[in-house]
Specification:
eight-stranded parallel β-barrel, 10 helices, 8 strands, binds 1,3-dihydroxyacetonephosphate
Length: 249
């Protein structure tokens, strides 16, 4: 049985005052039947970890370097995230792949480093609208999965987030059939590569315009083990019902 995960990605949003929303979220979810994660901007991470301590909410990073330390100005290592209180780190988000030219190999190396530092690596993948319209979705997803997931992954330290690029921040959501097709494909690929034990234990999140109003139907799709939520994770009033929907799924 896979533990479900409601993950929030604040992206480059939020200064100190955003922490009051996190406080509200942690108070509302002192305990939970699912894992709850918020990934704030790095400067807030340490204070965020202190705020959620003792609740069901944990905090994570939005990226880390593939090296464990060294001359990499402006970057953050996995060990630093862990030291600041992170449980997890998002890697290979399409915004980082686009803004920073991150390749599958880069994402794979980062995931390997993150897992070795004791973090859960949430590896993101997803097709563009042009790729979807050209019928290339499963080819693209399969290649990203093969290239971005490190060898020797274990079921509890790796999470895959399927985030179609055209659904991120747009209010557009794939049909439930389309989500089910990709998640079923991801599950089959993971089982083929890692076997039923590990491949069956890796959690699969859907991300892209998840809102309180559509969360329940998405969570009812086979092999959807939770969500990676952007905009609707910024306010406790929006994210809280998504957590509740996942608990009920
Ligand atoms: P939205 O929920 O704002 O569409 O963002 C999804 C996302 O990119 C989460 O990583």
């Amino acid at each position: 049985m896979r533990q479900k995960l409601a993950a929030g990605n604040w992206k480059m949003n939020g200064t100190s005052e955003a922490l009051s929303d996190l406080q509200e979220l942690a108070a509302a979810h002192a305990t939970s039947g699912v894992d709850v994660l918020i990934c704030p901007p790095t400067p807030l991470l340490h204070r965020a970890a202190e705020i959620v301590a003792g609740s069901a909410v944990t905090v994570g990073g939005q990226d880390c370097h593939m090296a464990s330390s060294g001359a990499h100005t402006g970057d953050t290592s996995a060990e630093m995230l862990r030291d600041a209180g992170a449980s997890s780190v998002i890697l290979g988000h399409s915004e980082r792949r686009a803004d920073h030219g991150e390749s599958d190999a880069t994402v794979c190396a980062k995931a390997d480093t993150a897992i070795k530092a004791g973090l859960i690596a949430i590896v993101c993948l997803g097709e563009s609208l042009a790729q979807r319209e050209a019928g290339e979705t499963l080819d693209i997803i399969g290649a990203q999965l093969a290239g971005s997931v490190p060898a020797g992954s274990a079921g509890d330290t790796l999470v895959i987030a399927y985030e179609p690029i055209w659904a991120i921040g747009t209010g557009k959501v794939p049909t439930l059939e389309q989500i089910g097709e990709v998640h079923g494909f991801l599950r089959a690929q993971l089982v083929a590569r890692f076997g039923t034990g590990i491949g069956g234990a890796i959690r699969l999140l859907y991300g892209g315009s998840v809102k309180p109003g559509n969360a329940a139907e998405i969570f009812a799709v086979d092999d959807v083990d939770g969500a990676l939520v952007g905009g609707a994770s910024l306010k406790a009033a929006d994210f809280s019902p998504i957590i509740t929907a996942l608990e009920a799924a």
